[in-house]
Amino acid sequence: MSELIDDCAQLPFALTHPEHPLPAARGAAPWQVDERCAHQVEGMADYGV
């Protein structure tokens, strides 16, 4: 519990004080799953994932 409290104490000021909101989020770059990535999870269905 103390670790969680310590982590929360490190939250940015803008998240804990809504009157000072964060800047607008930037658009995320589009991504695609390539064959190398797909190959890493090949067979995962056999494990119930």
TrEMBL record:
Organism superkingdom: Bacteria
Protein name: Uncharacterized protein
Organism of derivation: Lentzea fradiae
Organism taxonomic ancestry: Bacteria, Bacillati, Actinomycetota, Actinomycetes, Pseudonocardiales
